[in-house]
Design brief:
The chain has six helices and five strands; from the N terminus they run βαβααβαβαβα. The protein is of the alpha/beta class. Strands 2-1-3-4-5 form a five-stranded parallel sheet, sandwiched between helices. β3, α4 and β4 form a beta-alpha-beta unit.
Length: 149
């Protein structure tokens, strides 16, 4: 059973690479948003033309990125949403909500400092992890019924 996994959330650390490397050998495929921050912010104006107003600049990029995000979440068997500690990731919370609304299996990944502010998001998830290696252990268990250790 190949699991399709969408890795959503913060783009400032290498958590995606940690999960993908840890899952080597498992029957999984990964997709993710564009993680180049500048490309993600500027894709709309780079392709569709400049905007004098920052609102429309951002909106063009957000809407173009939403095409990729919607497809990734819709096609996924499991959506992993990472909340980092550096920025407030409203987009990650939105992605978690979309995944939940679509009935996707949701794994939320964040440190203990976010336990209280993300309690509603955590309640919608089927699992909550604090470290990428825990997500890998979850995938190994789901696919092979193997526990760590």
């Amino acid at each position: 059973m190949t699991l399709k996994i969408y890795l959503s959330g913060e783009i400032h650390t290498n958590w995606r690479e940690e999960i993908m490397q840890g899952a080597a050998g498992l029957d999984v495929s990964f997709s993710a948003p564009v993680t180049d921050h500048d490309a993600s912010d500027d894709c709309g104006v780079a392709i569709m033309g400049t905007e004098a107003d920052k609102f429309w600049h951002d909106r063009k990029g957000a809407q173009l990125n939403a095409i990729r995000t919607r497809k990734g979440i819709a096609d996924a068997d499991i959506v992993v949403v990472r909340f980092g500690d550096k920025y407030k990731q409203w987009n990650a919370a939105f992605d978690a909500g979309v995944a939940s609304a679509l009935g996707k299996s949701l794994i939320v990944l964040h440190g203990p400092e976010h336990q209280h502010p993300l309690k509603e998001v955590d309640a919608a998830a089927l699992a909550v992890a604090e470290r990428p290696e825990q997500v890998v252990q979850m995938l190994r268990y789901i696919l092979k019924a193997e526990l760590p250790g």
